[in-house]
Amino acid sequence: MTDDVVTPMMAQFLQIRAQNPGSLLFYRMGDFYEMFFEDALAAAEALDIALTKRGFHKGEPIPMCGVPVHAAEGYLLTLIRKGFRVAIAEQLEDPAEAKKRGAKSVVKRDVVRLVTPGTLTEDSLLEARRHNFLCAFAEVRDEAAIAWADISTGEFRVMACTLPRLAPELARLAPREVLVSETRDRDLAGLVTESGAAMTPLAKSSFDSAGAEKRLCELFKVGSLEAFGSFDRAELSAMGALVDYLDLTQRGKLPLLRPPVKEAPGGTVQIDAATRRNLEITASLQGGRENSLLWAVDRTVTAPGARLLERRLSAPSRDLATIHARLDAVRHMVVQSPLRHELREALRRVPDMDRALSRIALDRAGPRDLAAIRSGLAQAETVSKLLTGTPELLSQASAALLGHEGLVDLLDRALVAEPPLMARDGGFIATGYDAELDETRALRDEGRGVIGRMQADYAETAGVPTLKIKHNNVLGYFIEVTPTHEERLRALPELFIHRQTTAGQVRFTTVELNALETKILNAGNHALEIEKRHYDSLKGAILDQSGPIGAAARALAEVDLATAFADLASAEDWSEPQIDDSRAFLLEGGRHPVVERALRRLGEPFIANDCQLTKASTPAIWLLTGPNMAGKSTFLRQNALIALLAQAGSYVPARKAHIGLVSQIFSRVGASDDLARGRSTFMVEMVETAAILNQADDRALVILDEIGRGTATYDGLSIAWATLEHLHGVNRCRALFATHYHEMTALSGKLQGVENATVSVKEWEGEVIFLHEVKQGAADRSYGVQVARLAGLPASVVERAKVVLEALEQGDRDGRKPSTLIDDLPLFRAAPPPPAPKPQKTSDLEDRLRGANPDEMSPMEALRLVYDLKTLLN
């Protein structure tokens, strides 16, 4: 083509592309989605597929690449994960219709959907056990709010949320995409990106609160939103922007969202992003699910139950009645072990009804989604029958599982046991459901039998045993023989009519075969039309009951979680926590659930420890000292995780737990930098510590580890000292404060709420043995040199460190400054050669053991040896 000529098809592509800026355009051409120009270049690189050319534009070849329609979901997932958005342009008419307008007419196409990270519904694009939230943040004058929805499940919530609270809420929800006003996108870009979400700016009109109320009323088909609660202008703005974006991306086919639920800002435990990261609640520090708290405690057997578990761990409740109701349900399932096992077996057969329902509403479903609703509701009835005489939470769930008999019966009669994936494949309506369909199928199937008999007759008539009757979409039914037998059929022109000759085959037809083809084709198409009609009818019946179906799905998730927590408690010997409105924090035999599981794999025991931060009217702080590797960080984290589990409604890994309601959990554990934002390790530590000191109230639980270690010794000590005083005197909270600054242990005698605790170690012949036991008192040293030896430092370095340490400690006792010791400690001299290895000394105890021969000892001699060894040991 010339530089100025653009084919009609390419003109259509460019037009649709211009209407959807910022997205790759998947342009449907038959069995492929094709991309051109810059889209092709970007997609070929991202997907690692071949880049070809098609025609010319302005004198240059047009880059092109494509992916098969049947495999498109896999390519979409790759593109979404790499940060792309994709516009799907489908053919809106049959190519035969386009040809009626002229030989060069282009098939009508348009975008039917924008695929973005927050608007996914296909199972292959989603994680079954995690939500896929789309969030919107809105500000109206001095008000601000956040709304979030998972269109794959229908979840829809909103909450007042000031700008300083936005980061913690995004950390809690872990959304895939966040909508913001285009006037604020630059201000919020860093905050949203830090949460791991994609940011999408929208026009100010999308956030108009007046228009939002109208959009919401139209979506839920109500005259007023008052039935759902009272919403301020910012909350309406956030919800309206979210619905407006869904209307844009789904091209008018809005998902089946449940009525919005307004969350109270103080209804859950406040946990900021740094604390979630440090405690590894839903993801480990390496970024995956494995080795997180969620990974360690997840015993759910359904995908909705797993999503509910993640929500509970991410946002433990602060409402005592709610916590007690959840614990009552778990206790009942712990006691009723046979019932628990029976329920879990029934729940294993429950499909993901929430996501099936969402796909049905968006017209992206297939017959298997209808079958999923059938199976889920049938299992709901089975589960309900088992829930008799149960606590209130489970009784309410049981009630939501009933009343679906009519729909289950309809779906059971209408659908075959194992439907195909796609409705276009047919064969999903059961025999006996529709007499007309049965007759049409019989005609279609009988015609196929006639084809077989006709083939045998023609083979005998022509004398060609290898004659075949075949079918394709171009020729329909035809008779096929090899060129060797062509003349035998041509010798009977009154019967066989030549149609086509290929390289290796010759094809014929007959008048009788053409007539039969029309009959079979009409029967097959008619049967498929009848099935599609029933498919639409069944979809309508399901959508009419979408509310009760959604309630049943939530009830099943609640039962799944209660039985999963009970199964975990029974298997791991966890105990029921006592939760009240006091300031108590008493744990006996507490354990870290993740570390304990990891040690079990290695065949090693976990050393349980007590913790008591119970003070009636004063702050309660444990100042924890002891060497590295002794288990201080594990002890700190396990107490925070136990509090979190308790208020999430779970039993806890401890012999006994009495916890006064915790309002906030703050954690500053571990060292990390933020080089992308120009922050050193010490700066990150100070920023996180400042956030704790500025926010923690007297109901908070704070755990701090090694504050001030990233700077000079005296600077670090002074910062740690002042921080502890602030926690005690201003925040007045419950806290665990680990430090290497032994000078701080003197504070226990000056501050009423501070007690010293230490992690025990034992020295044995110059070696340090970590006992991992926490006890009252203070450590007298850090054992840093011994830990360095355990880490594998060269022996010469360890020995030199001992010399330097002894000199520094002696200088400290003599009142000399470290700088005056330089002459006595030539630190910069060449390192001496490593000393020759010393011969291993043996103890009397070892000598006695080596000299004993158990096979020749009498019982009395063996007993005497044991007493002798015990004497030597002491």
From TrEMBL:
Transmembrane segments: none annotated. NCBIfam families: mutS1, PRK05399.1. Residues 827-857 are annotated as: Disordered. Residues 841-850 have a biased composition (Basic and acidic residues). Belongs to the DNA mismatch repair MutS family. This is DNA mismatch repair protein MutS. InterPro entries: DNA_mismatch_repair_MutS, DNA_mismatch_repair_MutS-lik_N, DNA_mismatch_repair_MutS/MSH, DNA_mismatch_repair_MutS_C, DNA_mismatch_repair_MutS_clamp, DNA_mismatch_repair_MutS_core, DNA_mismatch_repair_MutS_N, DNA_mismatch_repair_MutS_sf. Keywords: ATP-binding, DNA damage, DNA repair, DNA-binding, Nucleotide-binding. ATP binds at residues 626-633. It comes from the Bacteria. Pfam families: MutS_I (PF01624), MutS_II (PF05188), MutS_III (PF05192), MutS_IV (PF05190), MutS_V (PF00488). SMART domains: MUTSac (SM00534), MUTSd (SM00533). Residues 700-716 form the DNA mismatch repair proteins mutS family domain. This protein is involved in the repair of mismatches in DNA. It is possible that it carries out the mismatch recognition step. This protein has a weak ATPase activity.
